[in-house]
Amino acid sequence: MTTAANPGDSLPKLPLLTMFRLGLFQMGLGIMSLLTLGVLNRILIDELAVLPWVAATAIAMYQFVSPFKVWCGQLSDSKPLLGLHRTGYVWLGALCFTSLSFVALQVVWQLGLSLQTTGWSLATVLWSITLGAVFAAYGVALSLSSTPFAALLVDVSDEDNRSKLVGIVWSMLMVGIVIGAIVSSKLLDTPEICGKALLNADALRPSQPTNIAQLQRGINPVFMIMPAIVLGLAWLATVGVEKKYSRFSHRSQSANRAEDITFGRALKVLTASRQTGIFFSFLLLLTISLFMQDAVLEPYGGEVFGMCISETTQLNAFFGMGTLFGIAATGFLVVPRLGKQRTTALGCGLGALCFSLLILAGFQANVSLLKSGLLFFGLASGMITAGATSLMLDLTAAETAGTFIGAWGLAQAMSRGMATVLGGAVLNVGKTWFTNPVLAYGLVFLLQAVGLVLSILLLNRVNVREFQDNAKTAIATVMAGDLDG
């Protein structure tokens, strides 16, 4: 008995070189995250003395618009652009978010000028709101590009090579952060943006105003050169790939894609059973605990260690290199020996210890210890990522894999936004409570360490066998209820 051949089987297999070429897009996203979370937040909090919670909330808006991923995914499914379902949207979104990054920087300058001349007046508040709106638009543009790109990865791959493609592309994201940190630090390494006047700002106790015109001359070119490179990478990564390798037209249009899910439905799926609820709570707490420092790390280097903007940008390279090595080493050496659950718990424990190193480095004003702490924190984060991702796949019912993973992706984006805001808010509180900046920043790191320890307690309650026995039916019931109305 013979079976009908899949029409997609006649299409060429995606070669390894093209997988790495696709990874150039993620490399570009790594560079952009460095500019937004690594440079802009440092300028806002340290150089321009904007309240940390205001800066963090404005920047986090690009995460809070992540539900637009649903619409962007459905749009690329149903309405081709430039004759292609994915590539046109990837290019349009990339053009928009790279342009908006420069617009955001110009709003930052206006916010700083308003704060210097009128204090926290109505005009300053309006500029703060405008900055949040620009970052929200940036997030929508990012979704318009990254969601069709994620769908493209599915379209051009098969089950036997998809995991390799995803692994390569994700690793290139971290490579982008490392390369972006090195290149940006070289572009920012100028005397004009590393004077003493640029290192004495305090969001609650300003000592002297920063020379914003001088700062502009040094930083504006970086926000023109780096986004232009990212736009070029987005084009180079995807040109010709969809037309040659996409299996989209040969596959079912009704397949459950990862992005076709609302935030409300995501919460229902992730709390459908006792085990999915426990694991979702663990992932929520873990994400917040891992990323609270996103909004405060570079300001920490500037205010406590007296580092220039170019030097604090380099801090991301130590974290990125640690993460890359941690993921690779965990997959090959740690998980096979300890198992996924114990590996993840070990990563959380090591991560908590690393935050102690970051605090100790601040009290000693020891830059080498700070960099070492970030390298080890990257290793711990890589271990957590590899272990938790593998465990998540075990806690996914095959029949609803797209829905479950889509739900997690959407919930994670919202959690990262919450983490950024919470980090800025806690730093704000710390600056109110303490005159010593190390204590203010240390409060953020301490809460992260506590969160990672609590994550271990939740992780210990996860039972894969119970999930496999009970969760499949619970998730199916939720999805059936959604379909019924």
Can you give a write-up of this model?
- The radius of gyration is 23 Å and the shape is globular.
- The longest helix is centred in the first third of the chain and has 34 residues, at 122-155.
- The protein starts with 15 loop residues before the first helix and ends with a helix.
- Helix 1 runs antiparallel to helix 8 (222-238), helix 4 (87-118) runs antiparallel to helix 8 (222-238) and helix 13 packs across helix 15.
- It contains 18 helices and no strands.
- Mean pLDDT is 80; it is low at 1-5, 195-206 and 252-259.
- By secondary structure, the protein is mostly helical.
- The protein folds into 2 domains: 17-245, Up-down Bundle (Growth Hormone, Chain: A), CATH 1.20.1250; 261-485, Growth Hormone, Chain: A.
Rg over CA atoms, rounded to whole Å, is: 23 Å
Q: What is the general shape?
A: globular
* Main structural class: mainly alpha
- Roughly how much helix do the residues carry, as a percent range? over 70%
Give the number of helices: 18
- Strand tally: 0
Summarize this structure briefly.
The chain has 485 residues and is an all-alpha fold.
List keywords for this structure.
Growth Hormone, Chain: A; 2 domains; 485 residues; globular; mainly alpha
